[in-house]
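Input.
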Amino acid sequence: MEDGKLWASEMVALLLKAKELKETVILTKKIKGTVLAEYDEIVRAGLAMEPLPEENHIKKRGKKKKTPSLRLLETFSNRKHQVMEFFVNPAVPFDNNMAERDLRMVKLKQKISGCFRTKKGAEIFFRIRSYISTLREQGYNILDSLQLAIEGAPVSFA
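Output.
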């Protein structure tokens, strides 16, 4: 929760509710509209409760500093379509755990060996990791698919 703000806990609950709805029911226009309207209401109420930057008597150049919670609210307001893309688009996952797992493997490789010795070696490593990640995402057997690739008949992702 952002600084114990009520709007933040409501937003967390709404996003988790949207995730659960997406996973358990067929989303109709009515359901989507209701959830998106609730999102708008939480943002509107949060903006009404958030204080604007205070005016100082001493004039300073530049923009007034906003609180972290106000900046987050403005992000929710300005980027609604990006925040709720997981809800309206079936192809978009709720989280980016797969990307995080892929990055974790690269960081582990870097930690163990210290670095990639050559650019070519890094390119080979990334190509193999990308292929394995795509195999996993598409539901292919990784070992069998790697064996096929070694034999010259890689899986085609068309």
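Residues 6-88 form one domain.
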